[in-house]
Amino acid sequence: MSIVAENRVRLPLVWVLAWLLGACAPLPEKPEMKGEGHLQAPPATPRAIPSPVNDVPALAPPRPAPRVETFSLSVTDVPVRDLLFSLARDAKLNVDIHPGVEGRVTLNVVEQTLPQILKRITDQVALRYRLDGPNLKIVPDRPYLQTYRVDYVNMSRDNSSSVNVATQIATTGAAAVANSSGTTTAVSGGSNNSLTRVTSISNNRFWETLQNNIRAIIGEASETDEVSSVILNAESGLLTVRATSRQHDQIQRYIDRVMVNARRQVLIEATVVEVELNDEYQLGVDWSLLTEGSNGFSFTQSLLGNNLVDPPFSVLEFTNMDGTLGDITAAVRALQVFGDVKVLSSPKIMAINNQTALLKVVDNLVYFTLEADTVSGQTLVTTSFTSTVHTVPVGFVMSVTPQISREEQVILNVRPTISRVIGFVNDPNPALADAEVVSRIPQIQVREMESVLRVGSGQTAVLGGLIQDSIDLNDSGIPYLTRIPGLGRLFTYTDNKSKKSELVIFLRPQVTRNASIDGDLSDYRRYLPPARPAMGALAPSAQKDTGS
User: Fold this and answer.
1) Is the pLDDT of residue 307 over 70?
2) Cα distances (Å, whole numbers) of residue 415 to 162, 411, 422, 505
3) β-bridge mates for residue 474, sequence order
4) pLDDT digits (tens, 9 = 90+) for 176-198
5) Rounded-to-integer distance, Cα 263 and Cα 354, Å
6) b vs e for 521-534, b when ≥16 Cβ sit within 10 Å of the residue's Cβ?
7) Based on C-alpha coordinates, what's the Rg of the chain?
8) With contact defined as beta carbons under 8 Å apart, do 319 and 296 qualify?
9) How many Cα atoms sit within 13 Å of 233 on the Cβ side?
10) Comparing 169 with 490, which gets the higher pLDDT?
11) What are phi and psi of 435, to 5 degrees?
12) What is the pLDDT of residues 137-151, one digit of tens each?
């Protein structure tokens, strides 16, 4: 019984083990589905493991640079031809000397190369040399043509601006003046005139000035010479000069210095602010309050004005640890202590050295003037009107001419002008009044100043002190009752408010060496829209399968 039971127990156990072994068998591989549109990786090729490198060959030591041969000599009043032959023989060079090379030389040379010695010889004798491998060629220093490339815009500019302040007070009446004959003559009253005019003229003729200066260097008499030694092509930026080697060296140095100065440019940030003064600051903005405490401001004031349009100015410095764009912003926020601050304009303009830049943000206000012409006939009176259109700019205009020194000191000739409409007046022409025609002409308020000031790069100059008083007339009352003739004023309430405001102009020049977003203008990158991807980087669009 025990043997039979044991066999019955083992039989199911064998079936279980067989089922488990069948489950562990590998599944049959599915056929790989390949399509033409699917990406397929190339089959991996078996690679053998490289054997370790035991002996690394040593690198050959660097070859020493060939030693530059130097010479030492001492000569006194020797013919230059003999000296050149001796130098060529010692340097093992072939030498060709033009028959026109003449002169005597005195030199003391200690361990100098051959080009250095030849350069010193050319300072004493009018000759030119050329080293071409083992050949040395010596010719007289006679005029020859050489072309210089000058990259500058082909343009001449003339700028003229003037500020006029005129008053005219007419006097009426007559005075009796007795003459020698005993008669009297009535002399009419004269007039009292006062006129102040300041005119600024700026002429920029780069190419004409450059050509005249080159002529002065080479000693050319005038432009009327039969054969000109200076050939200018401003359209292509080429300057060809016929001169000696010494003169060409001077011309090259001169052009290099001119281009360095002419290419300097400056970014000028201007902010025009109007401060409506509080009652306690009716005398204007007290700039000394900004320097109290540790707020980062330092203030320097110049109270010397040369004339009417050369007002006092101040230099305001602000230490900003976060960047360069917050200087003027911090100063504008500091003005809120003195009253309500309103920013009228905040332009930024780039100007090149000694070139006038003009910024104009205005609305051209259109108005008409009417002229009446009345013709009387036998029975009818005919009146004809002729209208003439006029425009007046209203807004902000600023012209600035910078001069940038090598030490990055900027001299600015700046003229900001702010204009706005304050009302309209009717044309008092009697002919228009008879015809019951109204011609309204705008009243323009203009506030401007012109000044020449010197500011360091990164400093903020302040032009202020233009204070004006204004009165707001507000009439209110009971509707309909205010229109009663004679009694309307009894139901009217008048509230006149006077306010005083000061105009403040901040100017901050910043000399730029690399005027690009990747250079000095990197702080303005955040104002640009996000860059679009390049055309080559765009993914190709999916093509529709049109196959059968």
Assistant:
1) no
2) 10, 13, 22, 11
3) 495
4) 444 444 444 444 444 556 777 77
5) 10
6) eeeeeeeeeeeeee
7) 45
8) yes
9) 8
10) 490
11) -85, 5
12) 999 988 999 999 999
Would you state the structure tokens that stand for residue 160, as one six-digit string? 């003229």
Burial of 241 (0-12, 13-18, 19+ CB in 10 A): buried
Find, among 148, 287, 264, 298, the residue nearest to 510 by Cα.
264
The CATH architecture assigned to 70-141 reads 3-Layer(bab) Sandwich (3.55)
Token pair in block for residue 60: 């050959």
Domain boundaries, the chain: 70-141, 148-171+185-263, 266-366+393-427+434-526
Q: Do strands 94-97 and 135-140 pair parallel, antiparallel, or not at all (unpaired)?
A: parallel
What does the block give as tokens for 544? 């529709």
More confident of the two residues 326 and 56: 56
Q: 493-497 — which CB contacts under 8 Å span 24+ positions?
A: 496/471, 496/472, 497/471, 497/472
CA distances from 376 to 215, 337, 373, 383 (A): 72, 67, 10, 9
- pTM score, two decimals? 0.66
Q: Flag whether pLDDT at 480 surpasses 70.
A: no
To the nearest 10 degrees (0 to 180), the angle between helices 206-218 and 245-262 is: 150
- Which pLDDT does position 178 carry in this prediction? 45
Tokens of 2: 């025990």
Spatial separation of the C-alpha atoms in residues 197 and 165, rounded to whole Å? 6
Q: What whole-number distance in Å separates Cα of residue 131 and Cα of residue 504? A: 66
Contact residues for 513 (Cβ-Cβ < 8 A; gap 6+): 519, 520
CA atoms within 13 A on the CB side of 528: 11
- HSE-CB at 10 with a 13 A cutoff on CA atoms is 6
DSSP 537: G
